[in-house]
Amino acid sequence: MTGALLVFGVIGWKLLVTTYKGDVRTICDGEVDSGYTLEKDMSKVTASVRQHLGTPEGNTFFSTLSDAKLAERAKKLKGEASTLGIGSCPMVAAFEKAAAEGDYRADIQHLCSNVAFSHLAEQDDAARLQRLEDWIDQGAKSPRTKDLSDPLRQAATPSDRAKVLRDAANKVDIFSCDLAKTLEGPVLPAKGKGIPMVRPFGEPQIIGVLKPEDVARVLVDATPAMNDCYKKGLEKKPDLEGKVSSLAPADQTVPDKETAMCILQVLKGMEFPKNPGPLVSLFLPLELTTSALPGPPGAPGVPAAPGASGAPMPAPVVRPPGMPRPGPMGPMGPMAPPGH
Q1: CA distance 337 to 279
Q2: Of 30, 38, 29, 28, nearest to 78 (Cα)?
Q3: Cα dist. 92→31, 97, 233, 252, 300 in Å?
């Protein structure tokens, strides 16, 4: 009986002293109280904070923070702490620092990617440097990335320039920098270009009731308009290539927003046969390329458009309703029921 009273007393005491403001203060002191840092042990900081929250409102707010991007977490927590009159909130600075590190790391990954700088190997050293400087000036998110411009420009040789990139990559635990190899490599002969094409680079995946031949037909109908988008993009950027992997522009590697949005508008306008439901999703990754041999589609050595001449596209992967889908793969999903 004494033990039961003691347990009840502890529970009652926690209920009395734990408040939403106290939970927000717990979140603010998450790094200090846990003994870990977001930079190295974010999961441990998160687990420690969660363990010490005492109100449903505190748990809900922390879940909201966890679902947001790091930069948004800092803003939300700073605003809530200010509203509740909490003067010091160290976790705000921790979130801001983690967000800044993430932006810088993403920039370095981009600078180390040959995909992001197509045909760079076919250009001389001066042109290579100019393309890197242009991207750093216009595309980099982190101010730290812009600090690389001077070291890259002042490097005495292409090998020294490659070392600047490798050193920056190693400091953020990126251990492979393919672009560095390109920078110190010889100028390669330009590859012959064929006709601009937007085409699938993987099998479509269908969730729901949709026939593969209907996918092929609709895609063939949409291909000329997508190719027109690509041709217009090439007029501005002759080396434009890339992949579309989601309806969200941020999730594609096409280095020209207008071209990507033009293609996405074409995809959104496709019309499929009507069906009574349920919701049908189609995932189809596309690539923009001029690597096809010269000549009209269907000519010897030139791939025909998927489904052209009555030939169906490769059989898609059809999965039963309710089975989890893989990560983002294609530009056409999720979609409303075909025809709606």
Answers
A1: 5
A2: 28
A3: 11, 9, 42, 31, 62
Spatial separation of the C-alpha atoms in residues 186 and 282, rounded to whole Å: 43
* pTM score of the predicted model: 0.57
Q: Find tokens 């101010």 and name the residue.
A: 143
> Worst-scoring range by mean pLDDT, 118-122, 196-200, 328-332?
328-332
Closest CA to 225 of 282, 272, 263: 263
Nearest 5°: phi and psi at 287?
-125, 150
Omega prior to 334 cis, within 30 of 0? yes
- 3-state secondary structure at position 79: helix
Cα separation of 22 and 151, whole Å?
48
Residue 114: pLDDT band by 50, 70, 90 thresholds? confident
Look up residue 10 and give its two tokens: 């502890």
* Residue 92 near residue 74 (C-beta atoms within 8 A): yes
Residue 126: count of CB within 10 angstroms of its CB:
8
50 Cα distance to chain centroid: 28
Cis peptide before 278 (omega within 30 of 0): yes
* 271 three-class SS: coil
Give, to the nearest 10 degrees, the angle between helix 38-52 and helix 56-67: 160
Q: Please write the tens of the pLDDT for every residue from 198-238.
A: 888 777 777 777 888 888 889 899 999 999 999 888 887 77
